[in-house]
Amino acid sequence: MVVVIGGGCTGLGVAWDLILRGVPVTVVEARELGSGTSGRFHGLLHSGGRYAVTDPVSAKQCRQENEVLRRIAPSAVESVGGYFVSVDDGVESYMRDWIAGTQSAGIPVTEVSVETAIRRLPGLNPRVQRAFAVADAVLKGFELLDLLRVNGERRGVTILTETRVTQVQTVNGQVSGISVRTKDGERRIPCDAVVNAAGPWAGQVAQLFGERVQMELSSGLMLIYSNRMVPSVVNRLAPPGDGDIVVPHGRTVILGTTEVPQVDPEPPEPTRESAEYLQSLGQAMFPEMNRWRILRAFVGVRPLFEGNGVVPQSRVSRDFTVVDHGRQGGLQGAFSVMGGKWTTFRLMGERTADVVVEYLHQSSPSISAHTVLEPDAPREKHSASSTICECERVSEAQLLDQMAEPFDNWRTRTWFAMGPCQGTMCAHRAVSLRMQYTDVEGGLDELTNLRRERERGVRPVAWGTNARELALTEALSCQTLAEGVAHDHLR
Amino acid sequence: MTTCGDVIVVGRGPAGLLFSSLVAQNRGSVILVADAQGSFPLWGGQWDFCNYTDDGEHVLDPYQWWQQHPSAWDEVRDASTWTLRWQHLMTLWQEIGIPVPDRVPKLNRWMVTPLGQLRPTYWVANWHFVMERPGPLVFVDVPGLVDFRAEVVARVYTATTGQMAKTFRLAVPSGWRRDWHALNWAWFLDSKAGQDWLGQALRDQVRAGEEAVVFPQILGVDHCEEVLEVAQRVLGRPVAEVPLPPPAVGGIRIQRRWEYWLRRHGIQLVSARVTAANRHSVTLQDGRALAADAVVLATGGILGGGLEIQPSGSVRNTVTGAVIGTLGDQLLGAVGHRNWDESVPVIGRMIQGWNPDKRGNGGAMNLWTAHVAYQAFIGHTALAREN
Amino acid sequence: MWQAADACLKCTLCVTQCPVVSVNPDFAGPKALGPEWFRRHQAGTLETMAHVDDCTFCQLCEAACPVDVPVAHLIAAHKEGTIRSWRHRLRDEMLARPHRVAVFARFSTVPTLVRSVGAISQKTPLPRRHRESVGGLGPPLAKSQGRVALFRDCYSAGYDPGLLDMAQALLSLWGFEVVQLPRVASCCGAAAYAAGKPALARKTAESCRRELALGPQVSAWVTLNATCDGTLREEWPRYFGLSLDAPVLPFDEVALSASDEFWRRMHLVSASNVPLITHTTCRGKVARGDGHLTKLARRAGFSRVEPSVAACCGAAGSYAFKVEHEDTAQALAKPLALQSKRVKPQGFMTDSGTCAIHIEHVTQVQTRHPAYWLYRQYQRYLQEGSGQ
Ligand SMILES: Cc1cc2nc3c(=O)[nH]c(=O)nc-3n(C[C@H](O)[C@H](O)[C@H](O)COP(=O)(O)OP(=O)(O)OC[C@H]3O[C@@H](n4cnc5c(N)ncnc54)[C@H](O)[C@@H]3O)c2cc1C
Ligand SMILES: Cc1cc2nc3c(=O)[nH]c(=O)nc-3n(C[C@H](O)[C@H](O)[C@H](O)COP(=O)(O)OP(=O)(O)OC[C@H]3O[C@@H](n4cnc5c(N)ncnc54)[C@H](O)[C@@H]3O)c2cc1C
Ligand code: SF4
Ligand code: SF4
C-alpha cells in the first residue's frame, strides 16, 4: 500500500493514477482537501500560451493536459476561451517570439481584430493593439478535487482528512509505515511506500524522510471582483509578470497575481498596499477596473522547487520534479513530487506513479489520461426549501445535504457566504441551521470563525463600496446579532 | 419659543431625522437632503445608551458609566442632561406616534438576539421585547423565516440564561410563499385579512401559562399596534418582538412614521447627493446649490456614505472632501471626525469616539450629537439676529 | 455599459421602500429582480424571474439605494427577456408609445370588448380629455426673467391641453417668456422604459430630442409631469447619452421661486382653507424629493394641507391600464382612499396627469396638478377684486 501525503491536486492526482493501475493508496491530508494551494489558485486551465516564450516544455504540457482535462473532467472545466491582448508599447519582439513559441508548442492561436476583442471583452483598454484567441479555460478547482475524491474513493482510495503525518517509520532503510496525528490521537499506518505531495510543505515533509529539500516558495495575491465583468480569460501579452491575467470564475472575475518570495508555507495575510498595486496593474488591461466592485483578496503559495539539496531524479521540465529518494541514496520507498501547476496535476500524478510502480516492481501503465472522472450521481432534490444565501442562491436543502462536512468544506461545497455580501446576510442563517444539529457553543464559535475568515480577505480591499459592505457586516454582527458576547454571569 | 432660521440637513438616518425634528419643533424650516435612505430599515430601532465597557463587559447602569467616562464633551457626564434629552426623545416619539413608555428607563434592559443570545439595550418602542432579568419565554417559529429559528433561539436562550424556553410554530396563510421575508409577513399582517388570519392561527396556540410570547419582528408595519393587540388578546399574555437583520421591520416602522411627521411639519426632502458644502450652503451633484443659515452633516460615516475609504486607506469626507485620517486596524464603525464642529458640523455616525459597534452606544451618539449641534445652531442664529 | 450595477451591498434598503412589495406578496422585490438577477445574467444565465413585470418602474428602490445601483433600470432590462402573449405584446407596443395613443385622444371610449381582447384593465379608468378654457392672468408681476420652454408632455398634450395653458399663464405672470415644446406629439421615452423596452425608449427619446432641438434657445426646460422631469434630467444623460442645453426644472420648483407679490396676492383669497392632500408622485420623489408640493400649497394660502401617505398611487404611467396589474394598482392606491375618507379633502394636488386620473378614481376627489390649483387660486384673487 502507498501513502500519499497531501490532499491537494497533486496528491489526489498521484493517488488517482496509482489506483487506476491497481495499487492500493491512502491519501493523508492534514486539514481538508484543497486547504493548501489547490484551493487558493487563479482558476486558469492554461492553454500554454503564457509559457510559450519562457518555458516551452511547460507550454506544451499545458496544451496537452488542457485537452486531456476537457475530455476526462468536462464538468470541472468551463470552456470560456481566452485572449492575449497587447496593451503595451514596445512588446513587438516579445510578440514575435510568442507567436513562434505557440506555434512550436502546437498551441492553437487565432488573431482577432481589435474591434472584435473590444466587443467581446467589455471595458478592454481601447488602446489594445493586437489580440489573439487561445483555448484558455476555467478550471473549477473545488469541483475537480471533489471529482478526484469521489472517483478515487469509488475505486478504493482511502482518504484521511484532518490527519497529519508526523513521522515516517523505516525498517532497514526502507519505508514501513507512517505515524499520523488526528484529533483522536496518534496512530500508525503501515505502508510500502510514501509519496510526499505536500505542495509548499514538501520541504517539511521531506525532513521526515531525513532529507533536506530547499523549496523556493513564493506567494501570489489574487483579487476577486463581485460580478463576471468579462466573459473570457484575458492575458496581457507581455513577458509574464504581475497582475497580467483576469479569469472569470462563477459569477466573479479574479485578477492575479504577484510573486513574492517567502519561507513559510502558510500563505501570508494579504495587504492593502499589495492589493492596490495589483489592481493598478489590472487597469492596464481594463482601465475602469478600479470602479468594479471588489470583494476580497486571497493569497496562495507556489510550491516551487529549485533542486538544491538533492539531485532530481527526472527533471521533467523546469516546472515540476519527481524525486526518488532511495535512488539518491536516501530512504527507500520515499518519493517527493514538487512544483507544477493545477493544469498539469494529472501528468505529475502519472510521472510520479511511473516511478512508484517501478519501485514496487509492477508494470501497469498509466490510464488516467483516458479515464473519465464521473461526477457523483446527482442527489435527490429536496422539494421546496428556503434560500439561505441570496448572493449565491444556496438553499437550505443544499446546506442540509452537506451538513456532515466540516465547516469550511460545507462552505466551499455549497458556496454560501462567498458572494457579494461575503456572508453578511447569511452567515448567521447558515450557522443557526447547523446549530439544529450541533451544540450551541460550537455553533456560535463557528460563526465567529467564519466572520473572522471572511474579514481577513475583505479588509485589505476595504475601499469604496466594499468598505461599506464591511461596515454593514460589523454593524450587523456587533449590534443586531451581538455575536461573540459572553454572558455567563446571567445564569 | 425661539424661531430658528433655515437649515440644511444632509442625511436622513436617525441623526438627521432627530436634528431636523428639533428644528421643526421650533418652527424652523428644514431642507433635508439625502442621496439614499438612512439606516433605520437596517435595524430594529432600539437606541442603545452604553452597552459595554472597554473590556466588553456589560454595562447595567449607563448613566453611571457616562458619569465616570469623560469624553469630548464635558457635559456628557451630567446625568440630568442625559435624562432631559431622553425625555425629549420620548415626547417626540409619542408625538410622532411611535409607542414608548412615558418614563425613561433608569437602567439597561436585556433583549434577545435572532440567535437567542442576550444583549443590553436602553431605549425601545413598546413592540420591542425587553426584560429586566431573564425568565421563561415562548418563542414563535415562523415558517420560511431563515433569520429566526425558534428552536435554536430557545436552545441558545436556555443555554445562556438557564431559563426555560418553549416554542410553537405559526401556521401559514394562503398565498404564503417559502421565500417570504419578515417584511412580506409584516405587510400581510398589516391588512385586515392578515389580522383576521393571525387571530385564527393563534387560537390553536392558546395554552395555560404566563410567559411572554416572543415573535420575530413581523407583526405589521403601519398597523403594528393593531396586530400586536390581536396577538395579545388571543394569547392572553404579553407579546413582543425580536428585531431581525434587514429588512428590519421595527426600523421601517419608525422611519415611515418619523418621515411622515416631518413632512407634515413642512420639511422639504430633497433627493440628491451633496458634493460640496460650507457652513451656509451645499452643492448638489447636478450642480444646483442650496443655501441656508446653517448646514449640518448627518451623513452616517462609512456605512452611511459620508466617509469614503480610498484604496490607499485614507478616509475622506464625501461632502467636504476633507481627508480626515487613515484607516488603521480599528473597526470601521470607529472611523470618524474627531469633533462635531469641523468646517461643517457633523453629527451621528460621522463622529469618532462613540463606536456603536463596539460600545453599543449608537442611540446615545445620535441623541447627544444632534442636541449639541442644535444648541450650537440656535446659538448661532441668536447671534446672527443680534448683529 | 451600466455603472454601479455590481455595487450591491445586499442591504435590502431597496426592498424596504418598494411599494409593490407592500401589496403584492408574489413580487420578489428589487434586490432579487435587479442586481441579483443581473449578476447571474452577466454570468451567462438567460432565465428570467416570475412577476418581474409587476414592477411599476417607480424607481423608489433606486432612490433608496446607498450605492447607486441602477436597480429599477436593471429590472427594466430584466423585463426585456420575459415572454409575453401576443395580445400583451401588441398592447404593450401601443402603450409604450403614449404620444401616438394620445393623438387619438378618444382612448376613454374604448369599448369593453376591445379592452378585454387588448388586455386593458376594466377597473382602471382610461384618460379622458379635460376641457377648460384658459385665459391670461394679467400683466407680469416681475420684470422679464428670460425665455423658458414648457415641456409639452404627451399626456398633457393629448388629454389636458388646458393645463399647459394654465402653466404658461402662470409662468408669464412670473415674468417668463414661454414656448411650448415639442410642437408635435412626442414622448420622452419613459413609457417604453417602464414597459421593459429600453431600446424603444432610447429611440423614442432620441426622436423627442430632435423635436426639441427645433425650438428656440431657452434658459430652462420646465416640466409639468414628474416622470418626464426625471426622465429628461436624469435618464437622458445617464442612459441615452442625450443632453439638453439648459437645465430641466419641475414646475413646482419654479413656482416656489415666484415673487413675494404673487404669494401675497394668493393669501388674499378667501376660500383658501379648503383641505388639500398633496401627493408627490413616486417619480417626483425620486427625481426631486418630497415636501415641495406641501410647501407650495401652504405658500399659496391653502391652510389645511396634508401630505399623502402613499409612496406610489399605483398608476405608474400605463401600468394600471394593464389588466394583469389592476389589482396591484388598486391596492397601492388604497392608503390614499383611506386617507381621503379620513381627511375629506376638497382636492388632491399631484404632479402627474396619469396619477391624477387614478387618484380621482379611487378617492372620488378632484385631483389636479399644482399649476391648476395655483391658476385657480389666482383667478379667484382676480375675481374677488384685486384692489385689496
Ligand atoms: C497564486 C497562485 C496562482 C496559481 N494559479 C494557477 C492557475 O491559474 N492555473 C494552474 O494550473 N496553476 C496555478 N497555480 C499553481 C497550482 O495552484 C499549484 O501548483 C497546485 O495547486 C499545487 O498543488 P499541490 O497539491 O501540490 O499543493 P497543495 O494544494 O498545497 O497541497 C498540499 C497539501 O498537503 C497538506 N500537508 C502539508 N503537510 C502535511 C502533513 N505533514 N501531513 C499531511 N498533509 C500535509 C496540506 O494541508 C495541503 O493540503 C497557482 C499557484 C499560486 C500560488
Ligand atoms: C445593521 C445596523 C444595526 C444597528 N443596530 C443598532 C442598535 O442595536 N442600537 C443602536 O443604538 N443603533 C443601532 N444602529 C444604528 C447605528 O448605531 C447608528 O446610530 C446609525 O446608523 C447612525 O445613523 P446616522 O444618522 O449617523 O447615519 P445613517 O443612518 O447611515 O444615514 C446617513 C444618511 O446620509 C446620507 N448621505 C451620506 N452621504 C451623503 C452625501 N454625500 N450626500 C447626500 N446624502 C448623503 C445617506 O444617504 C443617508 O441618508 C444600527 C445600524 C445598523 C446599520
Ligand atoms: S421600480 Fe418601484 S416597483 Fe419596481 S422594484 Fe423598484 S421600487 Fe419596486
Ligand atoms: S440594490 Fe442597493 S439598496 Fe438594494 S440591496 Fe443592493 S445595495 Fe441595498
TrEMBL record, chain A:
One of the record's GO molecular function terms: glycerol-3-phosphate dehydrogenase (quinone) activity
Top-level lineage group: Bacteria
Domain annotation FAD dependent oxidoreductase: ranges: 2-331
Organism, scientific name: Sulfobacillus acidophilus
Protein name, UniProt field: Glycerol 3-phosphate dehydrogenase
Similarity remark: Belongs to the FAD-dependent glycerol-3-phosphate dehydrogenase family.
PANTHER family xrefs: GLYCEROL-3-PHOSPHATE DEHYDROGENASE (PTHR11985), GLYCEROL-3-PHOSPHATE DEHYDROGENASE, MITOCHONDRIAL (PTHR11985:SF15)
Keywords assigned: FAD, Flavoprotein, Oxidoreductase
Cofactor: FAD
Biological process (GO), any one: glycerol-3-phosphate metabolic process
InterPro entries linked to this entry: BFD-like_2Fe2S-bd_dom_sf, FAD-dep_OxRdtase, FAD/NAD-bd_sf, G3P_DH_FAD-dep
Pfam families membership: DAO
From TrEMBL, chain B:
Protein name in the entry: Monooxygenase
Keywords of the record: Monooxygenase, Oxidoreductase
InterPro entries registered for this protein in UniProt: FAD/NAD-bd_sf
Keyword Oxidoreductase recorded: yes
GO MF: monooxygenase activity
UniProtKB/TrEMBL annotation, chain C:
GO molecular function: 4 iron, 4 sulfur cluster binding; metal ion binding; oxidoreductase activity
Pfam families per UniProt: CCG, Fer4_8
Domain 4Fe-4S ferredoxin-type: 1-28, 46-75
Assigned keywords, A-Z: 4Fe-4S, Iron, Iron-sulfur, Metal-binding, Repeat
InterPro entries: 4Fe4S_Fe-S-bd, 4Fe4S_Fe_S_CS, Cys_rich_dom, Helical_ferredxn
Protein name, per record: 4Fe-4S ferredoxin-type domain-containing protein
Species name: Sulfobacillus acidophilus
Taxonomic classification: Bacteria, Bacillati, Bacillota, Clostridia, Eubacteriales
